[in-house]
C-alpha cells in the first residue's frame, strides 16, 4: 500500500507537470517554399527547437521548403532515442505480462492511475498499441492534420507513455511480491491488499481528474467532459472535409474517393473520420447515380463503427432517385432501416441541406414507394425566452415598423446590382487623387507599372501552372493531401489577379507575412464560396426569396407587423423546393487559409522581378526581386515580414494611380442586407460573413452559437441596424476632398501627402569623419524619420480609401450590414467607410430617409451643435439652446464660407460634424417653415460615461449614480468635471502642505486631463496605463513644464483613482469580485464564459499557450470586468434598437452613442432610459453568480463559496429614477 501511494503522489506531480502539453496552442502550418514541395504534415516534434525557431521567426515556416530542408542532426538523434526508449519499455512490459500470466489466473488490466489518459477497459496490449500509434501520429501526420493537431497528438502519446510506465511499475511491484512470498496464503493476502490499494488509488485518481481535467481544454461543458481529444479531432475532421469538398468541386472524383479509402484503412486516421466525412464522398457518388459506390460507403461506415445519419440516407435515396432501374424494394428497405435508426422522412427535408436537384431526386425516390407523399415543413415560431423582450414579441398591436423610401421594383433592381458586384468579388473605383493634374513623370510611371504588371501576370501564370503540374503528381500513391485541389478551385488567371492585387495594395514599409497570407487565402475562399453558390443553383432561389422579401420593406406595399427575420424564414419554408440557401459546406479553417496564402506568397517572392535599371539607365541591368522575405520584431517575437523593393515603392508613389481596387465586402451594399436568420446566414448576398467576429483560429464562439437556439432578439437587432439606409452629404465631402488634395490639415484630421514627410537622412556609418555620438544621433534621427514616414503613409492611405469610397457612392443610397464581436458589441461589416469611423467619416453620412423637423427638431439641431463643440458640458439643455442662438451669426458664416470665413467651426471638438450641422441649421432656418423642413441629419445622444452608468446601476451607488445622470437633476452632471474638481481640491490641500509637484500643477488640472483615465478605468485600465494617459495630456499642454511630466502624472493618477473610489464605492467591490472570479476560473484551466441578459453566449478569446499559463490567466482576470460591462452595454443598445424599431424610428448606434432624426430624439431618449431601467431591474449579478456556480463548480466544491454574490448590499439608489431624468 505504501508503494502504491508513493507512486500515486509521484504520478500526480508528473501529470500536473504535463498539463501544459494538453493546452491547444494554435501554430502555423509548415508550408513549402517552392512549387516542388507541399505540406506533408511532417512537422518537427512538438518541443523541438526547429519548431520553436520557426514560430519565433515568422509564426509559420513560409520559407522552409518541405522538400529541400531536412531536420537537423541532433533532432533526428533525439527522435531515435525516444523511439528506442519506447521500444525498450514495450519489451519490458511484454516480459512482465508473460511472467504475471504464469503466476496469476487473472488478467490484469491497465493501472487505474492511467485511466484518465487511456479509455476505461483498455487492456495492456491495446494500450501499448494505442501508445505506439499515437507516437507515429505525432511524428508523421499527414498534411490534412495541421501542426497544432500534431502537437496535441504528440502530447497524447507522451501521456500514454506515462500511463504505461505506471502500469510497468505496478506490475514490477506485483512481480516482486509474488516471487518474494513463497506460500499461497501470503500471496492471497498480498493480492487482496493490492486490489484494495488499486481500488483506493482509482478513487483518488477520479478525484484528481476532477481537479486536473479543466486545465486541458477551455470550451463548452459538453466538450470538457470528453477530454482533450475531441477538439483536435474536430479540427482534423474539418480539414479533411474541406479537402474532400475541394476535390469534389474540381471534379477529382478518383482522388477524393481514394483519399477517403486511405484514411479509412489507416487505424490512426480512421478515428478522425465521422459520418459527415463519409457523406461527402457518398453525396458525390449519388450525383453520379452510382448505387454500388454509395453502398460501399455504407459498408465503410459500418467498419468504422459509425451510424448513418440524415445526410447518409438523403444521399442514398437521392442516388436511388437518379437510378432509373432501382427497385422499389431497395427504396423500401432503405426507408425501413432509416426508421429503425430513428430518422423520419420529414427530417430529411427539414434538416438536410440540398444542392441543385438533390431535393427533387430525393422526393422522386420516396414518391416511388409513397406516390402521394409531400414534405411537411413547419415554421419554427419559438419566442425569445428572455423576459426583457417577451412583451416585444407577444404584444405587437401598437407596433409600426418603418418602411424604406423605395418601391418594390426599385429594391429588386438594386438587388441585381449588388449581386453583380459580389459575383465579381472586387470593385475598381476612381481615386480622389485622380483630380490632381497629371505630370509627365506621373504618366511615365503609370506606363511603366502597367507594362510591368502585364509581364508579372504572364510570369505568375506560368509559375502557377508549373507548380500545379508538380503538385498533381505528388503523393499520388499514398493519397496524402496537398494544395492541388485548392489551386484548381478558380481559373488560373483569377489566382494571378489576386496576387497582383496584393502587390498593388502592399504598403511601402511592408506587411507581416501572416497578414498577407491570410488575406490571399481569404480572397480565394470568398471567390470559391461565390462559385459554390452559383454551381449549387442557390443564387436563383436567393433572388426569388429576396424579390418576395422586398414586399416587407418597400413603401408601395401594405404594412405588416412581421419582423424581417420572421418574414425571411417564412418565405424559405414556402419556397422550400429546389436547393437550400445553406448547402452545408465546411468553412475553411484559419490554418488552411494561411497555408494556401503562404504558398501563393511564395510564388510571388520567387517569380516577381524587375530590371534594376528601370529608373536609372546608368545602372547595370540585372533582374532583382520586387518582394523580400525578411524578419522583424513584434514586441519580443520575431515574425516573418514581406517588404517591397524601394524601386517598386518609388514607382507606385510617383505614379499616383487614379484607380483603386477593393474586395466587394469593403463597399457598402446597394440593397438592404439579407436578414440574419442563423449564426451562419445573413448580411451579404454571396460573400461569406461571420455573425461573431473572433481572433484568427478561434472556434469556441461558433461552437457556443451553434448550440444556442435562442438568439432571435440578437438577430432582429442586427437586422434593424443593417436596414438603415444612408447617403452622402456632398457639400461636406467636396470640402474635405479639396483640403485632402491641397496638402491636408493636421488640425482638421486630414493627413498631409507624403511629400510633406520629413526627409530620411542618409549617412555612411563607416565614415571616420563622424564621431560615435554624431553617428548615434543621426541613426536616431533616421529611425524617427522612417517611423514618421510610415505613420503618415498609413494615415494618408486610410483617408484616401475612405474618401474614394465616399466619392464613389456620392450619388447612391446604400446600407451597412452589421455583425458583432465576442462581447455582443455591433459593428458595420465594411471596414473602411462606415458611421463608426472618425469625425471626418461621420460628417459625410446622413440618413437616406428624411423627416420633417417638427416643433422641436430645430432646437435639437442647435443643442447637438453645441454638444459637438465640447462647450457647455455642465449647462442645461435650455442653456445650450440659448448659447446656440447667440452664435447664429458664426453658425451661418461657417455654413456659407467654411474655408474663407471666420472658421468658427474649426475650433469645435468634432469640427467636421460641427460644419455639417451648421449647414443643416442654415438650410432649416432659411426655409419657409423650419418645422416642415425635411432633415436627413442624424442627431446623437451620448451616454454619460456609459461604463460607470452600468457599474453605478449594478452597485446602486447614490453618489456615482448622480454623477452619471441616473438620478434626476436640474442640470446635467459631468462625471469628468466632477472628478477634475475633486482632484483639484486634493491638489490644493497638498499644495498648502508644501508639496512641490502639487504647486507645479496649479492651474493645469481640468476636464481634458482626467477624462480619458476616468472613462477607461471602468474598462480595466491600470494605474500604469492611467499614468501614461495623463502624461500624454500634460505633454500636449504647451505651458506645462515638461521636466515635471513624469512626476506629475504619477501624482495625478493616484488622486484620480482615489477620487473614483470615493464616488463609486460599489463599483470597486463589483470589479474586485469579477476579477477574482475570473482569476479562479482561469487558474483552473478554463476560459471565462457568461451569458448576456438577452441569451447571447460569450467566451473570452484569450487562449493559453505553452509556458504562458500565468500570462493567459492575467489577461483573463483583467479582461473580465470590462468585457462584462461591454456585454451589458451591447444588451442595452439591442433593447433600445428593438423598441425604437417597433415605434417606427430610424435608429443606429455607435456603441453607447445613439442616432436618430431630430424629430424623434425625445422618443428615442424615452426608450433609451426605459430599457436601461428594464435591464438593471433584472438580477444581473445574481444570474451571473448562478451561471458561474453551475458551470465551474458542479464538481469541485473548493471555489463555489466565492462565486456567490449578494447584489443588494452596495447601495440604496432606486434605478427607476433614471426614467424620470432629463439627461442620460
UniProtKB/TrEMBL annotation:
Keywords in alphabetical order: DNA-directed RNA polymerase, Mitochondrion, Nucleotidyltransferase, Signal, Transcription, Transferase, Transit peptide
Highest taxon above the source species: Eukaryota
Keyword Transmembrane: no
Organism of derivation: Nothobranchius furzeri (Turquoise killifish)
Protein name: DNA-directed RNA polymerase
Low complexity biased stretches: 34-49
Signal peptide region: 1-20
GO cellular component, one term: mitochondrial DNA-directed RNA polymerase complex
